[in-house]
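User: Please predict structures.

Assistant: First:
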Amino acid sequence: MPTATLPVALSATAAATTATLDSPAMTSDQTDAAKRDDFAEQAMQYADQLYGAAMRMTRNPADAADLVQDTLLKAYAAYGSFKQGTNLRAWLYRIQTNTYINTYRKQQRRPFEAPLDDLEDWQVGDAESFTATASRSAEAEAIHRMPSGIVKDALQQVPEDFRMAVYWVDVEGLSYAETAEVMESPVGTVMSRLHRGRKLLRGLLADYAREQGIAVQGTTEKEKKP
């Protein structure tokens, strides 16, 4: 999928969502109008990130756009329960993840897995802009430098709980706190799963990294030998 498709799909999704929020049913009084304006200002800035995650989940531009729109409309409906000052991005990701899970279950399709089956180079690269380079882990750095097929195959071998922690932190660029909110788990649990997942991923990527001259931190001296 060309990178240029991303803003086109986002533009259509944003326009459709805005049109729905502007409908008489959604703006019955000044309070609703103020809520709509505040939501649009606060939440729509994350539309591109939501779309990137939706593409990795659905692997289809139209489905991804629908998922983002459904997510934003559900988030708007529940916006009164959102505690201002807390992490809005993580809250939106959690709504989107739950929407995806529920939609696939209703359609009797496979349950949610880390959306890596058709992870493309442009999708991995897109996540880079949301991950601070200075704080990027060795695994995140390897993910951004290695071919998507190698990364995908390695990640799919990591058990689900650990894979999801690696996915949200090292692919999507979420913080520990954000990942904990999305996964609805304590931060300590997320950190433990992330540590284990990164260790497993590091081992899986070590051979390829060594062949390509890419340093993966944490490898043993034995692993570094040709």
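Second:
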Amino acid sequence: MIIYSAPRASRAFFGVLLTALFTLSAVVAAHAQEPAPPPAASPRKPLTVVTRTITPFVIEKNGRLAGYSIELWGRVVREARLPFDPDTGYKVVENVTQMLDELRSGRANAGVAAVSITSEREKAIDFSYPFKESGLQILTKEQPGSSFSKIVGGLFKGDILWLLGGLFIVLLLNSHIIWFLERKKNAESFPEGYVAGIWEAVWWSICTIITGGCENKAPLGVAGRLTAIVWMLAGAALFTYITATITSAMTVDTLNSDIQSVADLKSRKWSVGTLSGSTAQAFLERQGLTVTTYPDVEAACAALADDKVKAVIYDAPMLLYYAKNNPDKQLGVVGELFEKQSYGIGVPQGSPYRKEITRAILALREQGFFEELENKYFGTGIGGATVAAK
């Protein structure tokens, strides 16, 4: 019995050992087949944003940047969670051409200021969804002369003369009707004699549309009273409309009345100022105008104030802002908006950030953020957070 028990014990021991080794190898193999955990995502490189000073979109004061576009970009960064450091991420250049070069070369990841979206620029860079609609407008210098002469001059404009003439004809017609209806039964107020009667009827008609009635005169007959009611309503409305039209026309005439359009400048061969490399410069040169370019709005407006150019043509928001905040210069915009355009945030072609920026702009529009910006910078004045200018 002892002779056979040893081999059986050895076989049992080796069986257990082989089973343990097999189990261990299976565990190791299974562990080796498990997928390795993904590497930790590396943080995105901080963005470089190229910009330029252009009031009120980008304003530099004491080494800090502020303005409409700077505040917008700050909100875009937060909305899209973009990797951007406001203390080191801005690169300020002198003009739009340099901004486009920075984006085209890839030295900047985004361009933020007031850059118009054009087909020519789209060939070199990409743009986000537009964040502001704009257009060109004319800034002129107020004409010398007294306010009285401007008012009198405004009254003798063609459109105003037609309105005044129409009012006079309607007034005479109503005066004849009320005199004809009242002359026999109300001779005390409207004498039967033609000259005296019409004179009193005209006086009554004027008093009625201005003050709502005449103290010592009133129609007595039914037809006369019905005519008076119609005249009070229609005459008052007509008088109000004409008064508003004349006031509006004379307000415009406090500016340079001989310039209302690009055609006026072109026909007189006057020199106009604008900013170098702008869409306004390209437009004016296509129109065949004599163009003098300046580095910024302030320089162009200074040239206008010094009579070096007859007008400045540039983006309406900048001109309106300048005229509003520099009343001592006696400058103002005239005419209608033309060559309408949109501002966007520029990025290099194929940039992965374009969609992120566009989505952020659309989200901010839905949140009402742009109404706040418009009121802040073009309504109640300028303010807001500032960031370092590098």
